[in-house]
Design brief:
Blueprint: H1 3-25, E1 31-32, E2 35-41, E3 44-48, H2 51-77, H3 81-107, H4 118-128, H5 132-160, H6 164-190
Antiparallel strand pairs: 1-2, 2-3
Helix pairs in contact: 2-3, 2-4, 2-5, 3-6, 5-6
């Protein structure tokens, strides 16, 4: 290698070492990209998401799990063809969403709730006991109620979350949520 290349490598290495050394010696707690940096030991950092961000991700995961279950139940037990089709669309969309939420929670170091919400389990249990037209009507009602609760949560996250990636996730998910609500309302109307 010629002298100019060696010089460039040495300068680059020196800049990197200097930059790393400067970060290791700071002891202050600061905000970095809307994520709180908490020092555990000198030279080591742990990132904690803002509470509003973590709460939203937890809610989105619970909703996603419920959506996957509801999609599966519709696919298995729905009588009306449009209910079964909606269930398959719900499974596909919620599966994609599940991957995004898990990746985001991992990147942002947000704990994922291990268990489904108790109220969701009760709803799923009651719904699974129904059959025929009773199932389809109850399913439409549950989906409608779930989305009417969830859409405002995503709208609030879009406005209130501190992390720009989480805000972006909420914003990009909204069209899908609204499309699902419109679809279930159209199915309901067609079944009257």
């Amino acid at each position: 290698m010629n002298k100019l290349n060696w010089f460039a490598i040495v300068i680059t290495a020196a800049v990197i070492i200097q930059a790393c050394g400067r970060n290791a010696n700071t002891d202050d707690t600061s905000l970095v990209d809307s994520v709180t940096v908490v020092k555990n030991t000198p030279g080591h950092q742990r990132f904690e998401a803002e509470k509003v961000d973590a709460d939203f991700i937890g809610e989105a995961i619970r909703f996603n799990r419920m959506g996957l279950e509801l999609g599966e139940i519709a696919r298995r037990q729905g009588i009306h063809k449009r209910i079964k089709t909606f269930g398959m669309v719900l499974i596909a969309d919620q599966s994609k969403l599940n991957k995004k939420i898990k990746a985001l929670s991992l990147i942002k170091n947000i704990a994922v709730p291990a268990e489904p919400e108790a109220s969701g389990s009760v709803i799923l249990s009651q719904l699974s006991k129904k059959s025929g037209a009773d199932f389809d009507r109850a399913y439409i009602s549950i989906i409608n109620n779930e989305y009417k609760k969830e859409i405002p949560i995503f709208e609030a996250a879009e406005k209130n979350c501190a992390d720009k990636d989480i805000k972006s996730f909420a914003m990009k998910t909204m069209p899908m949520l609204k499309a699902h609500l419109e679809a279930i309302n159209a199915i309901s109307y067609s079944m009257k």
